[in-house]
Every structure is written in structure tokens, then in C-alpha cells.
């Protein structure tokens, strides 16, 4: 944040220095009395420029040393003489005397002519003869020209800041003239002074911005940072403890499950052994039963297979028994 504030202050100072260089390039100022009406032409300044916001105006921005401005000076005077018939007010601005006003209109080339109608500004880009200027008003050619954007309008807040910047550059030009004229310092020496002053001002502005930022957004005290670090460490310790407890619980649960599975396996093995023994005993009993059944079956078959005595044999056996009885009786 501090580096950004220093860069911002340095950028503002460099911009001011560039604006001062632009004004220095304009050359020495011409002594005059801005804000007065000279003949048919109004001399505009920072004090009375708001007159342009009312009615219809044609305003020229010029510099006394500008050759192109000198060439159209006569045509501009003739056009101003007919201003009453055209229902228009003609004005001019000396950029060497009014750097702030030239900045408000963002004048980058000379001469620059603007048409104003009730605060709406349009830049005139036609021929600079008195006939063409007169036709521009009579034929209302300005209606076909696109107005200046609102944010670039001389009455906008942005251009108000631009006017202040250019006015500051005019003040720097006066200081430069004092250094080179009154004190007799070389031109490059004056430039060096301005460069060093710009750097110093940038550093001071950056420091001021840093202090303002610290006041508006103060940094957290150190003990709060330490407390926050301790709190974070404590929370991390609690989280690790909770994780260890959860891992221990999961581990014990897994051990219980494994023990239960082992018990189940053992019980299943015992049940299997018992069932195998019962199966073996049942097989032995079935074998014995089958053997008994076979024995009884063989006896029955033997009984069935014994031959039945015939009638002749029974008669002969009866006779033998009778004879034995008779013998015994004798």
C-alpha cells in the first residue's frame, strides 16, 4: 500500500511537471488586462469565463507568438465587428496569460476556436476567414457538429481539475522566470531544481497518503496477531486431538469387528465339526440298521426257502409214529 501511494504521489508530481513544461514552451507572457472588452472582442479570463455559459459565443484561444494566430487576427476582428448583426458575442483567450482557462478547454493546438450556445460547446474546424465564420453562424452549420462530451465540457468537474493543474503550471513558469531572470540561474539549473522538487514532492505526497491510509485503515495490533496465532495453533491442536480420538475409535471398532469375525469363524468351525461327527454317527447307525435289516431279510428268505412236506411224506411219518407207539405198548 505504501509503495502504491508513493507511486501515485510521484505520478501526480510528474504530471504537474509536464504541464509546467508545456507552459514554459509557450514562451514569455504578454502584458495585458484580461477580463476587459477590447473593441468588439471580449478578453476572457478565469474570472469572467462563465459568461460563455449564457447566450451564443465564438471564442478563440491564441498566443501572441503563434504565426497562425497572427494571420487570422484581422479576420477575427472583422468577424467581431459584425457580431451585433449576427446576435453573437466574440471573445478570445491568451493562453500565455490564462493557462488555467486553456486547460479547462483542453487546448492542445493554436489557434483553437470554440462555438458555445447556452453552455453547449462545439469545436470549430472550418476555414478561418471572416466570410466562413459569418456563414457558420448565419447558416447554423454548428447544429451539424457533434457537441463536446459532458465529461470533457469546460463546466465539468474533470475539466475544473484540469484547469487547476494548468494554473499550477503557470505558477511554476513564474518561478522559472524568477530563477532565470532575477537570480540569474542557468535554464538547465532551473530544470534540475524543478526535477528535484518534483521527486521530493512526490515522496512527501506518498508519505501523506500512507499516513492517511494508516489512519483510515489501521493495522491490527501485534498482540492481536499473536493471540490469533495462538488461537489458530490451539484450534489445530484440538483438531488433531479429535482426529486422533476418531482414529482410535475407528481402530478399536475394527479390532472388535475382527475379534467378532474370529469368534464367528471358530463357532462355525465347531458347529461344522459337530455336524460332521453327527453325520458320521448317523452314517454308522444307518449301516448297522442296514446290516440288521439284511440279516432279518436273509432269515426270512431262508424260512421262505424251506420246502413244505408233501402228503405222502406226512402219511409215512404218521405211520412210523403209530408203529413206534404200538411197539412201545407191547
UniProtKB/TrEMBL annotation:
Biased composition regions of type Acidic residues, renumbered to the chain: 250-270, 280-305
Composition-biased stretches (Polar residues): 309-330
PANTHER family attached to this UniProt entry: DUMPY: SHORTER THAN WILD-TYPE, THIOREDOXIN-RELATED TRANSMEMBRANE PROTEIN 4
Primary location class: endoplasmic reticulum
Coiled-coil segments on the chain, per record: none
Cellular component terms per the entry's GO annotation: endoplasmic reticulum membrane; nuclear inner membrane
Disordered: annotated span: 250-330
Domain Thioredoxin as annotated: residue spans: 18-142
Membrane topology: Single-pass type I membrane protein
Phosphoprotein keyword on record: yes
Species name: Terrapene triunguis (Three-toed box turtle)
Molecular-function GO term, any one: disulfide oxidoreductase activity
Keywords, ordered alphabetically: Disulfide bond, Electron transport, Endoplasmic reticulum, Membrane, Phosphoprotein, Redox-active center, Signal, Transmembrane, Transmembrane helix, Transport
Residues that span the membrane, as ranges: 188-213
Pfam families in the record: Thioredoxin
Compartmental location: Endoplasmic reticulum membrane
Record protein name field: Thioredoxin related transmembrane protein 4
Source domain of life: Eukaryota
Signal sequence bounds: 1-25
Amino acid at each position: 500500500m505504501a509503495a502504491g501511494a508513493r507511486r501515485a504521489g510521484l505520478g501526480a508530481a510528474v504530471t504537474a511537471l509536464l504541464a509546467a513544461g508545456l507552459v514554459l514552451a509557450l514562451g514569455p507572457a504578454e502584458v495585458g488586462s484580461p477580463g476587459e472588452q477590447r473593441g468588439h472582442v471580449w478578453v476572457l479570463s478565469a474570472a469572467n469565463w462563465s459568461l460563455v455559459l449564457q447566450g451564443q459565443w465564438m471564442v478563440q484561444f491564441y498566443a501572441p507568438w503563434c504565426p497562425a494566430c497572427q494571420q487570422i487576427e484581422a479576420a477575427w476582428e472583422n468577424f467581431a465587428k459584425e457580431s451585433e448583426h449576427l446576435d453573437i458575442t466574440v471573445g478570445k483567450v491568451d493562453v500565455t496569460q490564462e493557462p488555467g482557462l486553456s486547460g479547462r478547454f483542453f487546448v492542445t493546438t493554436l489557434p483553437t476556436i470554440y462555438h458555445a450556445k447556452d453552455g453547449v460547446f462545439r469545436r470549430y474546424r472550418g476555414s478561418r476567414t471572416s466570410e466562413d465564420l459569418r456563414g457558420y453562424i448565419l447558416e447554423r452549420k454548428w447544429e451539424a457538429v457533434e457537441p463536446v462530451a459532458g465529461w470533457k465540457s469546460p463546466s465539468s468537474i474533470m475539466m475544473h481539475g484540469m484547469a487547476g493543474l494548468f494554473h499550477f503550471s503557470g505558477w511554476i513558469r513564474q518561478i522559472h522566470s524568477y530563477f532565470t531572470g532575477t537570480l540569474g540561474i542557468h535554464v538547465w539549473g532551473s530544470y534540475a531544481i524543478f526535477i528535484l522538487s518534483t521527486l521530493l514532492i512526490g515522496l512527501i505526497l506518498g508519505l501523506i497518503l500512507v499516513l492517511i491510509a494508516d489512519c483510515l485503515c489501521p493495522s491490527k495490533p501485534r498482540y492481536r496477531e499473536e493471540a490469533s496465532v495462538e488461537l489458530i495453533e490451539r484450534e489445530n491442536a484440538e483438531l488433531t486431538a479429535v482426529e486422533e480420538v476418531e482414529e482410535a475409535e475407528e481402530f478399536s471398532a475394527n479390532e472388535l469387528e475382527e475379534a467378532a469375525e474370529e469368534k464367528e469363524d471358530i463357532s462355525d468351525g465347531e458347529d461344522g465339526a459337530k455336524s460332521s461327527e453327527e453325520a458320521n454317527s448317523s452314517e454308522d447307525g444307518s449301516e448297522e440298521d442296514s446290516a440288521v435289516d439284511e440279516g432279518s431279510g436273509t432269515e426270512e428268505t431262508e424260512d421262505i426257502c424251506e420246502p413244505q412236506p408233501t402228503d405222502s411224506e406226512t402219511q409215512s411219518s404218521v405211520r412210523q409214529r403209530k408203529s413206534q407207539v404200538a411197539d412201545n405198548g407191547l
